[in-house]
Amino acid sequence: MMKLERLARVVGLSVGLAAIGCGGSSTAGPGPADPQGGAPSGPLASLDTSAPLSETWSLEGGGPAPFLFYAAENVRLSAACKPPGGPFNCAAATYLRRGAPAQVPRRQLDGRMSAGTRACMSLGNALVNGSNSVGAQDTFCRFPDGSLVSTGALEQYKLHVIQ
After folding, report:
1. How many structural domains comprise the chain?
2. Distance of alpha carbon 54 from its chain centroid, rounded?
3. Which of these, 9, 40, 66, 153, could form a disulfide with 75 (CB 3.0-4.6 Å)?
4. Nearest to 21, CA basis, from 96, 74, 77
């Protein structure tokens, strides 16, 4: 809890952590050099037991793509990341659950681009725009293995604003 409080202060959140449903330990884990180290912790540790909704998004330049949406955690992730009955097995899920937060300078958060998009760019990953059947639009971060995660999830769970 102490690490989450420290992260909230760095990001400049003035809302109490209990009020936004955060608790437990920090989501920060081993950095990109050690993506397999340690067990997942924090609010995304429960993704294994959550029941996701299946969605299809049309990706710009790529056609339809299946996703899993974990509503309680607000995470949209490539469906191939979690085969039925199996463990997560993609770079996007591994990063969300174990990777160190993306470092984004405060001066880059000027409103012209979302913080999640900046986080994806700071990781050196590609951005992909998508839309669903009802016209909603979202931006996804493509990891080197082709797996995708919504930039909103990166903003919510994997952003560290630095000076």
Report:
1. 1
2. 17
3. 153
4. 74
127 token code pair: 């951005």
* Residue-wise burial string across 66-79, b where 16 or more C-beta atoms lie within 10 A, e elsewhere: ebbbbeebebbbbb
Q: pLDDT tens per residue, the chain (163 residues)?
A: 334 343 333 333 333 322 223 333 333 333 343 344 566 666 787 787 778 999 999 999 889 999 999 998 999 999 999 988 888 999 999 999 888 899 999 988 988 889 999 999 999 999 999 999 999 999 999 999 999 999 999 999 988 898 8
Domain assignment of residue 37, given as a range: 2-162
DSSP 71: T
Q: Are 102 and 112 in contact (CB under 8 A)?
A: no
Given a contact cutoff of 8 angstroms between Cβ atoms, the answer to whether 118 and 127 are in contact is no
